[in-house]
Write a structure and sequence with these properties.
single chain; sequence-specific DNA binding; 18 strands; Jumonji domain-containing protein 4; 9-stranded mixed β-sheet; alpha+beta
């Protein structure tokens, strides 16, 4: 007998509140999965852009059984299952241009390195698209809190690079201070091992920048005064939600494997848009000597895509795709399925309302009004915006 799907809903009048990080405390944001549901997460953390940690997330994960032996990494299983695959590896001791140098290794070579106690290198396998390499290997399940994921929905529908990663690192391996790609959300689940995170509420990172507006590679508390930050220890089975704009750095305190996603949805799409807009202003300032030339707008978009990962055209393409898909789902033409979950109409309308809000901002932006940067998307953009306006005009 087929199991009925669980419908995800939100209150019809849901609005995104003003963000207030002043009273957040990890002690008030630490939950057991059995006592914490989607509505709790949606209302108290995702909407408010606040971190939280959820325990025992991996209880039913295949990889938590196969990749772990006792409380250690099961080297033999990883070599047997994935040994001939190639993964990116960062050298934590080799820093150039303020980042860790990267190369590719076969997975069996990396696991053999991990097993060699006398190897004094500090190598961190990271950003490994294992799910893309093995799409039929259901080695983990996306926790229900994190299923509203436009970024990976778009990537999978359009057969583009996803934002789903596996990390494997020895004790002492680390990720530099950074903000996640596109100013997106991220979630991280430890399959085995332990991580220490340092998180900074949005705006605190500005206090760390040098006179050239660069962040340090690593935050060292003794070198800075009056910085608000939080230290979080993530154990095996824990999921950590990192909201948009929260800069962070991570160190593995034991040999660790984690699964990580970056994601965007209606709760943070306006943050992403404002970050994209801000990055364009920075780029325009960097090459302002070219301002006034016919090539200036296109050159800015090229640099913007290099710095931010998206330009205005790719962002509009992304928004229009999700909007059209949700409009179709609202009309009942396609099923809005996410594994054992389905989207209720209230969530679909919440998605559409917040896409429309961002499209309205783009509609009055100088890039749309004064350049031809979005000319290839203009007809689609105007039609989607018109369709969304009709939905909410009808609702009134």
């Amino acid at each position: 007998m087929m199991q009925s799907k669980i419908e995800i809903q939100c209150p019809l009048d849901t609005e995104i509140p003003e963000y207030d990080y002043s009273n957040w405390n990890i002690n008030d944001a630490n939950f057991q999965q059995c006592n914490f549901d989607f509505t709790d997460f949606f209302n108290n953390f995702m909407l408010k852009n606040l971190p939280c940690q959820i325990k025992n997330v991996t209880d039913n994960w295949k990889c938590a059984r196969q990749w772990v032996k006792g409380d250690q990494i099961n080297y033999d299983n990883l070599i047997e299952e994935y040994g001939d695959l190639i993964a990116p590896v960062a050298d934590c001791k080799n820093i150039q241009f303020n980042s860790q140098c990267k190369s590719d290794m076969k997975v069996h070579q990396y696991i053999e390195y991990l097993q060699n106690a006398t190897d004094n290198r500090l190598l961190y396998l990271k950003d490994w698209h294992l799910r893309r390499s093995r799409p039929d290997d259901k080695f983990y399940e996306v926790p229900p809190y994190f299923i509203l994921d436009w970024l990976n929905e778009y990537a999978m529908d359009n057969k583009e690079d996803d934002f789903m990663f596996v990390y494997i690192g020895p004790k002492g391996s680390w990720t530099p201070l950074h903000e996640d790609v596109y100013c997106s959300y991220s979630w991280s689940v430890n399959v085995v091992g332990r991580k220490k995170w340092i998180l900074f509420p949005p705006g605190e990172e500005d206090k760390l920048k040098d006179r050239f507006d660069n962040l340090p590679l690593v935050f060292e508390p003794e070198k800075f005064q009056n910085i608000k930050y939080f230290e979080i220890t993530q154990e095996a089975g824990d999921a950590l939600f990192v909201p948009s704009g929260w800069h962070h750095q991570v160190i593995n305190e034991a040999q660790t494997i984690s699964v990580n996603h970056n994601w965007i949805n209606a709760c943070n799409v306006e943050i992403v848009w404002k970050a994209l807009e801000k990055c364009l202003i920075i780029v325009e300032h960097q090459i302002e000597e070219c301002k006034g030339t016919p090539e200036f707008p296109a050159e800015c978009q090229l640099i913007l895509k290099s710095h931010f990962g998206m330009d205005f055209e790719s962002f509009v393409t992304f928004l229009c795709y999700i909007a059209k898909k949700r409009l179709s789902q609202l009309q009942g033409n396609t099923q809005a399925d996410f594994n054992q979950y389905t989207l209720g109409k209230s969530i679909i309308k919440f998605d559409l309302k917040n896409i429309l809000k961002v499209l309205n901002s783009i509609y009055v932006h100088p890039i749309f009004l004064n350049t031809d940067i979005l000319s290839s998307k203009e007809d689609e953009f105007i039609q989607v915006r018109k369709d969304l306006r009709a939905v909410f005009s009808f609702c009134k």
